[in-house]
Amino acid sequence: MTVPLDIVTDPAHGGRWTSLRTAGREWLWRREAPERDSVSPGDLFVDAGGLEECIPTVRGIPDHGDAWSRPWTRDADRDVVHCDRFTLARAIRSTRDGAEADYVLTADAGFRFVWAAHALLDLSDRATVHSHDGASTRLFPEAAPLLDRAWPKGAAWVAGSWPVPCGLRLDRFGPDDGSAVGAVVDASRCCVHDHTDRLSWALEADGQPLSIALWRNLGGFPSVRPYRSTGVEPMLGRVFDLAEAGPGDAARVPASGEVRWRLTLTANCRCP
Q1: What are phi and psi of 35, to 5 degrees?
Q2: Distance between CA atoms of 38 and 25, rounded to whole angstroms?
Q3: Which residue from 33, 137, 193, 200 has the highest number of Cβ atoms inside 10 Å of its Cβ?
Q4: What is the pLDDT of residues 93-142, one digit of tens each?
């Protein structure tokens, strides 16, 4: 049986989603980071957990994008943030089956970007994530120590590899082992299982590249005072760093000057 999702956001501090709750369960992981309240555009990312709106990049410059460090304003039923090269509007509403978030980005035609719903989830070490079997998976250099073969210097796709590219079991978060791995799966849907709870994610956008990014930090990041954080991140684009995006790896604004997309969340559905 599907159930509604209650969502709380913090427009004054980057539009971050601070709560994603069903009856008896908070899905979002959070950490104490009081310095987050005083950041300015261009600052290094301050990880307070929750779900961050990372745009126009995740890694690279600006760190985790340009929207998380700016105040958002309320306009009717939407939250809006104005950045140097684009404006992003977001409208979130509850549905009978969970919740939907509709986005509109306005920018000059040809503007390229990556967007991620950078969701850090409060998951047990038994949690798993399910997506399209055999989907190509992009691995990044930090995965090299965990792989069963040598890995090139940069990111690379492993075709037909989900959920076990090069021997790395990405669908299982597991207990802390001192590793931290980022990956991008060529899929637009996934479902997180944690004990008897389920949370599915589905992303829709006409004519744009879609993917699911994973951040499996099992006590391997940062190098000083590492902690555990597990991320499931629907994306427009197929790479963490916009500067590394090849053809088809980034979203692009068409002649209309707008890109629209929808993120749908469903709790306790009958996902695989």
Answers
A1: -65, -15
A2: 30
A3: 137
A4: 999 889 999 999 999 999 999 999 999 999 999 999 999 999 999 999 89
CA distance 251 to 234: 13
- Spatial separation of the C-alpha atoms in residues 245 and 114, rounded to whole Å: 9
Tokens representing 123 are 């998951």
Tokens of 5: 């999702």
Report the distance separating Cα 83 and Cα 88, nearest Å: 8
The sign one gets for the Cα dihedral 218, 56, 187, 202 is positive
Is the pLDDT score of 45 beyond 90?
Answer: yes
Q: Which two tokens stand for residue 30?
A: 């959070």
Q: Which amino acid is at 99?
A: A
**Residue in 193, 225, 199, 209 with CA at minimum distance from that of residue 125:** 193
For residues 88 and 78, the answer to whether their CB atoms sit within 8 Å is no
- The tokens describing 204, both together, are 């829709």
Q: What is the DSSP pairing of strand 51-54 with strand 115-121?
A: antiparallel
Here the tokens at position 196 are 């008897």
The pLDDT, as a whole number, for residue 3 is 66
Q: Strand pairing partners for 115?
A: 236
Q: Are 100 and 249 in contact (CB under 8 A)?
A: no
Instruction: Please spell the DSSP secondary structure of 3-64, one letter per residue.
Output: B--EEEEEGGGTTEEEEEEETTEE-B-B---GGGGG--TTPPP---BSEEEE-S-SBSSSTT
Please state, in angstroms and as integers, the Cα–Cα distance from residue 5 to each residue in 51, 191, 192, 216, following that order: 14, 15, 15, 24
CA 192 to chain centre: 13
Give, in order, the Cα–Cα distances in Å from 240 to each of 40, 68, 94, 131, 182: 22, 16, 29, 19, 9
Alpha helices in the chain (DSSP H): none
